[in-house]
């Protein structure tokens, strides 16, 4: 059975659809499973019983990847916390001149990545920071080339957000395509989905008014994919967005994938209110049920078109991360050595080394599989 056509013909899903019909949700669920979901259908799914969504999402994932759950040994290089964008939901950024502001030199940032490769055998670095207009394009070229040379190309660079790339384009007086080409030539392998938040201009005006529009975010990602780089896609939910705006966000990502086909994975993060401006207005974060529903609905809507969905433990905690595996997630994410952003938002991070990740996945009833930056399994003993 093809995952992209006729998925609702699966016998297990057929029985679940009968239960959904009794609840008046059959049409919305069937449309999603057939790849024809509308925003109204997705809103209806958000109102569905959580266990029903979990049963459907888990079955779809079983058909896709079985009981295997991927993870990667990686680190985060937050090379600076200086940022001029000032998103209201961010607890990490500092203005230039602030006593807590910092900026690593390119060689120092690369040195820390190389050290992590030697100590932990990381396979990926997530290279992200604030938007500091004083950092030129050459900074990243130096850092990326140094990393690639010293690690013999063994460390993939999953680097820079759309907003960082857009600012580099502005200060370098180059097109986005020219900037991406230079970053790619320097060693950047893929681009994370940060900066999407919710792809609604109304929401963006409230939570990140200095960021580009939703259409510009999509356009920049299209350019990145046109240059041959894969991306991940994200959603930050649980603040000022409506269910309709969440639905539109998912559909925009699906449409982007259908046009370009280079979205590797989707990650949903709940908004964390600690130590930021937006948190004073929305002091209570979305609960675990919202994460489980969001993961499940993403799986149902994306089906196999976006194959990998991460567990979302980073903001929700490892226990809830384990629960998302029953709701359609099939990737744990990474070890995240060096993470600095979430502790600023009051989120304590456990030390997740390879063995503890494998234990957490196995405890939840799944088979842990180490992967690389491109979501391909790593041969054992490599």
Approximate shape: globular
The biggest beta sheet, please? 4 strands, parallel
Rg value: 20 Å
CATH topology annotation: TIM Barrel
* CATH homology superfamily: Aldolase class I
Helix content: 40-55%
CATH architect. name: Alpha-Beta Barrel
Using DSSP, what is the number of strands?
A: 10
Helical segment count: 17
Cofactor: [4Fe-4S] cluster
Protein name: Thiamine biosynthesis enzyme ThiH
Keywords: 4Fe-4S, Iron, Iron-sulfur, Metal-binding, S-adenosyl-L-methionine
Organism: Aeropyrum camini SY1 = JCM 12091
Describe the protein's architecture and organization.
This protein is of the alpha/beta class. It has one domain (64-370): TIM Barrel (Alpha-Beta Barrel), CATH 3.20.20.70. 47% of the residues lie in helices and 12% in strands. The chain is built from 17 helices and ten strands. The chain has helices spanning 11-22, 26-33, 39-46, 50-65, 106-120, 137-150, 162-172, 176-186, 201-207, 214-226, 243-260, 277-281, 288-302, 313-316, 318-324, 341-344, 354-363; strands at residues 68-72, 74-78, 124-128, 156-159, 188-190, 231-237, 263-270, 308-309, 331-334, 367-370. The strands form three sheets. A four-stranded parallel beta sheet has the order 2-3-4-5. Strands 9-1-10 form a three-stranded parallel beta sheet, covered by helices on one side. Strands 6-7-8 form a three-stranded parallel beta sheet. It is globular. Mean pLDDT is 90; it is low at 1-5 and 339-347.
